[in-house]
Specification:
- There is one protein chain.
- This protein is of the alpha/beta class.
- 49% of the residues lie in helices and 16% in strands.
- It has an 8-stranded parallel beta barrel with strand order 1-2-3-4-5-6-7-8, surrounded by 5 helices.
- Strand 7, helix 9 and strand 8 form a beta-alpha-beta unit.
- The longest helix is centred in the first third of the chain and has 17 residues.
- The mean pLDDT is 93.
Length: 232
């Protein structure tokens, strides 16, 4: 994969119209798009189908978690959409149900370990008696053993996670911020180049491109940094 295959643009905008305008602006520079809750609930799933028909890659960031039967049926229907990636929370029972449901499809299931907006204090508030890194590594091992296609984690943990999951699973890292940019509500952030060097296979970038005065230039700059890291 080259840098273009590894950059996932987060369509974190309030309307499908704004998403479509951004897609037109970026043209062939970006080929992989993430659709999450915000856009999904205003027509984003239909947009996902349109992107698939247009030859784009699509990552549905739904973070599924429910009883096994519900997760399985949800995954079966997502697989029929032809999208490339789908997230669910990395709980062992949910992951096993999802893997069984996706069998025979090309859908890459990603286990979400610990959200990049969470730090140690947030985990304590959520009832966990562990630190983010330890929980991420535990979830990564469980995802590997369940047969998942990949992991979502902070790039701060990507090197350690790569050593757990091996070379073949996808390692998708949000919380990517070019040097000097605002971290926003993310608490564990890394630059694009460092994320690639630490073993990330795909980078999810939202606000640094979406909110840029020139989104196309911002995307090209990030791609250049990724390409440089890949060539090192």
């Amino acid at each position: 994969m080259d840098a273009r295959d590894r950059l996932i643009l987060g369509l974190d905008v309030p309307t499908v119209g704004e998403a479509e305008a951004l897609i037109r602006t970026l043209g062939e520079t970006v080929s992989f798009y993430k659709i999450g809750y915000q856009l999904a609930f205003v027509g984003g799933l239909e947009l996902a189908r349109d992107l698939v028909r247009d030859g784009k890659s699509v990552f549905l960031d739904m973070k599924l978690l429910d009883i096994d039967n519900t997760v399985a049926h949800g995954v079966e229907n997502v697989a029929k959409m032809g999208v490339n990636m789908l997230t669910l929370h990395a709980y062992p029972k949910a992951m096993r149900a999802a893997v069984a449901a996706a069998k025979g499809s090309d859908l890459c299931l990603l286990g979400v370990t610990v959200l990049t907006s969470m730090d140690a204090a947030d985990l304590v508030d959520a009832g966990y008696d562990t630190d983010p890194r330890s929980l991420v590594l535990k979830r990564a091992e469980q995802a590997r053993d369940a047969g998942m296609g990949g992991i979502v984690c902070s790039a701060e943990e990507s090197s350690a996670v790569r050593s757990v999951i091996g070379p073949d699973m996808a390692l998708v890292t949000p919380g990517i911020r070019p040097a000097g940019s605002d971290a926003g509500d993310q608490k564990r952030v890394v630059t694009p180049g460092d994320a690639i060097r630490d073993g990330s296979s795909h980078l999810v970038v939202g606000r640094p491109i979406v909110k840029a005065s020139d989104p196309l230039a911002a995307a090209k700059s990030i791609l250049d940094e990724m390409a440089l890291a890949l060539s090192a």
